[in-house]
Design brief:
The protein contains 4 helices and no strands. By secondary structure, it is an all-alpha fold.
Length: 118
């Protein structure tokens, strides 16, 4: 039974990984576009779910962070596609720094707003 499980996992993995590898090596632009589109669709799903759950006004912090992350990912993928990998890594670091800065500023603003209500 254990051997069958190992064989089934290896077969399933091969059936999933080989087409992805083939597409990534043969049709790299299409593969990059598809992966970018799927990641953007996932983030859009999370974005819509967040707004439905908390409302638009209370989601300002989330929306700001979301836009920073999406700008970072889009610039990363755009730079990778045109072959500027070093600048792509710098774009990810810049997006992370901007995200951290926005988190601190928005946390400070929400603290000030909540203290004004009392």
């Amino acid at each position: 039974m254990f051997i069958f499980l190992i064989f089934a996992c290896a077969l399933l993995t091969s059936l999933v990984i080989f087409p992805l590898y083939f597409c990534a090596t043969t049709f790299s632009n299409i593969y990059s576009f598809t992966v970018t589109f799927l990641i953007a669709a996932f983030f859009l799903f999370i974005f819509i779910k967040q707004i439905k759950k908390h409302g638009a006004k209370s989601s300002i912090s989330f929306i700001t962070k979301f836009l920073i992350v999406m700008a970072g990912f889009s610039s990363f993928f755009a730079l990778v596609i045109i072959g500027k990998r070093f600048f792509a890594i710098l774009a990810i670091f810049a997006a992370a720094a901007l995200y951290f800065l926005a988190s601190k500023i928005l946390k400070l603003k929400t603290t000030e707003l909540s203290s004004e209500n009392f």
